[in-house]
């Protein structure tokens, strides 16, 4: 499970609400809302399938407190177990806001595949 995931292009319109889908259910400790998480992740744009970020491409996982992340991650990671892989489809209001918000991903629905490596 330590390899970079492959994502098929989604079909149909982007969902309005956060979609949480476990690809692999982990067996380790649960991530709690206040946890600091160690993750590998891939981020792609829903409409184009273009990758915009990937910790795999940088060759190292990232470690950060959930409360410092976008709302889609704050809501989508808690309950995930270490060793798991989860896909989140995050609407703009839970990501980087509407188009014109000043962020290059504003107005875009985003897909993340996240491997939870550890929690603290």
TrEMBL record:
Record's catalysed reaction(s): [protein]-peptidylproline (omega=180) = [protein]-peptidylproline (omega=0)
Residue intervals of the PPIase FKBP-type domain: 34-120
Enzyme Commission numbers on file: 5.2.1.8
Keyword Nuclease assigned: no
Molecular function per GO: peptidyl-prolyl cis-trans isomerase activity
Domain of life (superkingdom): Bacteria
Class of the enzyme per the UniProt entry, highest EC level: isomerase
Keyword Isomerase in annotation: yes
PANTHER family, alphabetized: 39 KDA FK506-BINDING NUCLEAR PROTEIN (PTHR43811:SF19), FKBP-TYPE PEPTIDYL-PROLYL CIS-TRANS ISOMERASE FKPA (PTHR43811)
Protein name, UniProt field: Peptidyl-prolyl cis-trans isomerase
UniProt lineage: Bacteria, Bacillati, Actinomycetota, Actinomycetes, Micrococcales
């Amino acid at each position: 499970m330590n390899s970079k995931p492959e994502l098929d292009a989604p079909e149909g319109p982007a969902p309005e609400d956060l979609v949480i889908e476990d690809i692999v259910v982990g067996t380790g400790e649960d991530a709690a809302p206040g946890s600091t998480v160690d993750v590998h992740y891939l981020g792609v744009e829903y409409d184009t399938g273009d990758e915009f970020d990937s910790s795999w491409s940088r060759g190292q996982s990232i470690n950060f407190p959930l409360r410092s992340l976008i709302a889609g991650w704050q809501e989508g990671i808690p309950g995930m177990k270490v060793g798991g892989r989860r896909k989140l489809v995050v609407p703009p209001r839970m990501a980087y806001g509407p188009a014109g918000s000043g962020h290059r991903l504003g107005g875009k629905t985003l897909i993340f595949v996240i491997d939870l490596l550890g929690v603290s």
